[in-house]
Amino acid sequence: MKAVEEGLARKFWIKFESDFVFCMYTPFFVSLAAGTLNTDTFLHCISQDSLFLNAFARAYKLAEECADDEDDKTAIRNLRKRVNKKLKVHDTLVHEWGFELPKENITDNAAVKYTDFLGATALGKVEGEKALKIETPFEKIKIAAYILGAISPCMRLFAVIAKEIKALLDPNDSSHNYKKWIDTYCSQDFEVSALLTEELLDKLGVSLTGEELEVIEKLYHQAMKLDAAFFAAQPIDQQIVVPLSQVQDPVEGRLTIFCDFDLTCAAFDSSAILAEIAILTAKKADPDQNETKLTRMSSADLRSAWDVLSTKYTEEYEQCIKSIIPSEAGKFDYGSLCEALKQLADFEKTANSRIVHSGVLKGLNLEDIKRTGEHLILQDGCRGFFKKTVGSENFKTDVHVLSYCWCGDIIRSAFSSGDLNALRVHSNELVYEDSISTGEIDKKLESPLEKLQVFNDILKYRNNDDQHLTVYIGGSLGDLLCLLEADIGIVMGSSSSLRSVGDQFGVSFVPLFSGLVEKQRELAKGGSFKWNKLSGTLYTVSSWAEIHAFFLGS
């Protein structure tokens, strides 16, 4: 048998966290967090609780019968008692929340899909797997573990979403329509139930094989997806701010997405990747080659030269940032920010000239660059988002990649698979002779101001109306001006220089979910809302799943 590391439930939660994101960004939870969710929608949702709770109770009963350890049996029995207690007081609890359940309960198809899935799991029927006969004690233990794997994510999902929403509320404001519901799922009692379920899953998983753990992982993920699908399917009869693709007019609307590449799309910095290509392929060079303008340094010399260049760049970059940050933070001042970033432009151009002069980019084969680009690791969810966005038939979308990268070919190659050739790349380019780089760079984008110029040139002929939105996604200081000029600026990652400069010039960084909740409130109050460029507010995300959920939903 294969022992599992401690925290099986936690490992699964982290792995499938994107499904939690898709769930949280549904119109249901954004509106609930804003306190503006239509009451009928809320009542329809919670009227399904009895369906879920009864399914939990039946599954726990089977899990208790299957467990062979008395402590495990007792723990599962206590979980079942908690569920039965909640079933008995559910109507009273709803009344305490300030609502009355409808007399006629309409069963939700999305809820039935989950309860059918849980029921099948409890009987040993796992999609794509051979059904268990549940005859031997060990087979019964597996069933108990499978049941806990299918219930655990549901408990954790409610606990985490409720805590995320509660963090946005004013603790002194009792007027929020759904505050008592949120408090219930933030309670210590509910957290104990969630933890007990996870601890049992961890304990039961210890005796399972690697193949059986894969089955539990599959069940955990399926449960997460079914939960997200349930909340996405809730009937919404009100104006909403998410997903963006449904808010905009599908006929008149057009979306232009701009995106940085390094550390926004790509998981690594392209300059370091190009340097590594040069170092690794230098070994192929003929040591007896004749001296020409394409003669390359040895691998060792290239490594040494690159280390010196990168160290010098980092030190001077930090000095440059210190020199442009004002001593005291003030109100948002776009003009002063533009002036300050001119110093960064001078620094970047000097650094690029140093790269050319060093010769570290001389002698690279174009095919090596393209091959590397094709295998480049992109941020999780990035490729899938663009594939769905570009391929959407419901919304007109243009995508432009704006990058300081020295070589546009590596970006184009990274997006060459998955039908993403429609993405337009704007970057610097290496100069080649017979597909071999000369070491020169055709410099087109070296500073925040030049990025902004390309951004404005692309938008020069767009219709300036509410149905044509611009979005910029970036994570570096070089993106700051474009982020502010776009209707919606989304900051990926946690660049310290971007944050420190932005903070000092009065830029506000707001988590995207929090920003959407506030927009939903605006919509409820005034009947409309707008995304405004140069507002001084940027929205932060930690993953492409958040961007996907915001734009496209689940």
Task: Explain the overall architecture.
- Pfam families: TENA_THI-4.
- This protein is of the alpha/beta class and 554 residues long.
- It is built from 23 helices and ten strands.
- The strands form two sheets. It has a seven-stranded parallel sheet with strand order 4-3-1-7-8-10-9, sandwiched between helices. Strands 2-6-5 form a three-stranded antiparallel sheet.
- Helix 18 (408-414) links the parallel strand 3 and strand 4.
- It is globular and about 75 Å long.
- The two termini are 38 Å apart.
Please tag this protein with its features.
554 residues; alpha/beta; 7-stranded parallel beta sheet; 3-stranded antiparallel beta sheet; 10 strands
User: Roughly how many Å is the radius of gyration?
Assistant: 28 Å
User: How many distinct helices?
Assistant: 23
What low-confidence regions span 5 or more consecutive residues with pLDDT below 50?
A: none
Cα separation of the termini: 38 Å
Organism: Dipteronia sinensis
Protein name: Thiaminase-2/PQQC domain-containing protein
Domain Thiaminase-2/PQQC: 27-122
InterPro entries: HAD-like_sf (IPR036412), HAD_sf (IPR023214), Haem_Oase-like_multi-hlx (IPR016084), Thiaminase-2/PQQC (IPR004305), Thiamine_Salvage_TenA (IPR050967)
